Amino acid sequence: MHPYPFAYHRAGSIDEALQLLSTHADDGKLLAGGHSLLPVMKLRLAQPGHIIDITGVQELRGVQQVDGALQIGALTTHHELATDPLITEHAGLLAQIAHVVGDQQVRHRGTIGGALAHADPAADYPAGILALDAEVVARGPGGERVIPIAEFFVGFLTTALDPQELITAIRVPVQAGTGFRYEKLANPASGYAIVGVAAVVAKASDGTIGEIKVGITGATDTAFRATTVEDSLRGGAGDAESVKAAAKLASDGIDVLGDIHAPVGYRTQVTQNLTRRAIMNALEHASA
Ligand SMILES: Cc1cc2nc3c(=O)[nH]c(=O)nc-3n(C[C@H](O)[C@H](O)[C@H](O)COP(=O)(O)OP(=O)(O)OC[C@H]3O[C@@H](n4cnc5c(N)ncnc54)[C@H](O)[C@@H]3O)c2cc1C
After folding, report:
1. Domain assignment present for 1
2. Ligand 1: which residue has its CA nearest to atom 37?
3. Whose CA is nearest to atom 12 of ligand 1?
4. Per the structure, how many domains does the chain have?
5. What band does 287 get if pLDDT is binned at 50, 70 and 90?
6. 117 and 82 share one domain
7. Which of 16, 18, 37 to mutate to test the pocket of ligand 1 (most atoms within 8 A of CB)?
8. pLDDT tens digits, residue range 117-140?
9. Where is the FAD-binding PCMH-type domain (predicted)?
10. Which domain holds residue 29?
11. Does this model's pTM top 0.85?
């Protein structure tokens, strides 16, 4: 199906994009990789009258190390994340995730900013970005603001961004000595996560679990941090039995989704199993 007609605008800078967003506040949409926006437009689930193409905005590209964090430009593609040396060295979890997003074409066009702004409940990055305790840097008419990731995903396809704001970057704390792992059961057709679980573990000097963060996507209508799992393991030895017991808490307190790909009971089981696997693997690779 063809989308409804729209006007096309090409922004050359962040300021220009913001100006266009505020002019077309009720009817404008940013275009990054187009791999989520165009499908929903073709299905006529979204009918923006104005498309603001930001792909030429160079300020939104690139990965830099700034004050103990990696600053990842919103237009960084999945392929760039999968292959960037700074990401591989300091935030390897993101490289691991980027490798399993969609297919080659999706990875070369789709961007991390677009993926987070779209907030698809089956998208991969949200699990990892939550487990890395990242921050989203956004600019709007009132200037810049930093949104902790715990406050960013607010519901199905919904984020804390205002309609006139754009994501400029994602800040990820540099990881040292942590073990990490992303486990995903992929939809065989699209590659999206039926369930995806990211775990980041730091060991204390005595070898116990000093810190643990677990992000889960696909299980319910928005990605979330599995804090009950984390709380039950923090300070413990992280043996196989305790991890198995903790992983069973991963689906507590959420409305597990059921659909043609995975009914509720199956998705619940997958959520628990992938949580156990992700944590065990992260533990194996964490250094004391
Ligand atoms: C066949 C196929 C398979 C896929 N498989 C997977 C998969 O396995 N896992 C996965 O996670 N994803 C998957 N995707 C989605 C893909 O990763 C998209 O690239 C991504 O979700 C959106 O990024 P984009 O740059 O294409 O954004 P766009 O489609 O351009 O934009 C998406 C939304 O974000 C907004 N937006 C874009 N950039 C910004 C910004 N900087 N600030 C604020 N708002 C912004 C747009 O206005 C729009 O509302 C798949 C997509 C396709 C088509």
Report:
1. no
2. 114
3. 123
4. 3
5. confident
6. yes
7. 37
8. 999 999 999 999 999 999 999 999
9. 1-177
10. 7-53
11. yes
